[in-house]
Amino acid sequence: MKKILIIDDEEKLRNLLARIISYEGFDVYQAGDCKTASRRLAENDIDVVLCDVRLPDGNGIDFSKELKVKYPIVEIILLTAYGNIPDSVSAIKNGAFDYITKGDDNSKIIPLLYRAIEKVELAKRVKHLENQLGNKYSFDNIIGKSDLICDAVELAKKVAESEASVLLTGETGTGKEVFAQAIHHASNRRNRNFIAVNCSSFSHDLLESAFFGHIAGAFTGAVRDRKGLFSEANNGTIFLDEIGELALDLQVKLLRVIETGEFMRVGESKPTRIDVRIIAASNRDLHKEIESGNFREDLYYRISVFQIRLPSLRERIGDIEPLADHFLQLFSLKTGKKIDKISADCLDTLKQHHWKGNIRELRNVIERCVILATGKEITTDLLPIEIQNNIESNTNDKPLSTFDLASLEKQHIQRILNYTKGNKTKAAELLGIALTTLYRKLSENNLK
Q1: How many CB atoms lie under 10 A from the CB of residue 26?
Q2: What range does the domain containing 30 cover?
Q3: 338: which residues sit within 8 A by CB, 6+ positions away?
Q4: Does one domain contain both 159 and 220?
């Protein structure tokens, strides 16, 4: 139920307004002065305030300005017995929703209240979405407890509060854009744009226009002016993924942007000034690229004021299970399936995989498994065949001293069960053992 606060030192008028407004189903609170009103606002989640301009301990117009600073979502309707244009202008400038004259505009109060409530509800929805967005990109949503990922998160949290350029390094799929988003949303620029661009996804000619924009007639097909991504990111953050793919002439122009805060649109001679924080990322060894003449050393030092290396999934095997569980919940929800868990053997298989595509590859694998699953559990046979084959290959390539006999036996039994699609009678025949022996070994090894 929406809550309305009436502030007026005329008790009879307050009671009359309260009775009229309560008939509309609103909760109504009353105050005779600014001090009491402040207490009511602190104690209750007020949506709209009806406030007299002349109060015993203050001016309603000034008080409304104070309230909008402290309670920006609350809407304020000012009431006065002496309406005049200067006061109404001041009221609106101070954030009041509207300004009406007592007696003359009584019929307007209820419709005005409903319009104010609509604005409050919209503001609350926007705030809720902003909070969701902030939570989505917060550091708390980076999954993993391994020392390497925790160290990376702590470094990112520290640099987020600064204006320093950041270089994120690591293999493809390690979560560089996730970190860039988290850094931006933890920074003072969080309420400004975050623009992400993959430097390898544009041709050389298109990338310059995409970066800096162009004016009409700058080249064939440029029929109108276009803002570039750097302009879109003004006062915010631009994330340059795969920066090692930039051509040398664009590296020079990017260096100038970093050094001067200026650039020129394609076809334009007048520079544009911007204030942009740069977060760059690369899966290449930029030191080697510098040695081979493919990357400018001066640009490298500009973009790597603060460098964070993101570990590969192979280096944080302990995080595979929570990541896989997270993706399981995500895709189960999307597909409407009720899948409870990933089998222990399937998790073992996931932990032994090389994961060249890192977290992105794991996400894709779990999504595939969820699509194929018909039961309440993700099992090894749902994994892509190359992962199952790779596990066999990796096992065969390792010296026997790295495995105890029980582990080798467990893996071999599971492979045979996968081959027979769970047919235990057939599996016992292939293994050359009695069915009762197979059941005993399944129980010992916690297999199904």
Answers
A1: 20
A2: 3-132
A3: 332, 376
A4: yes
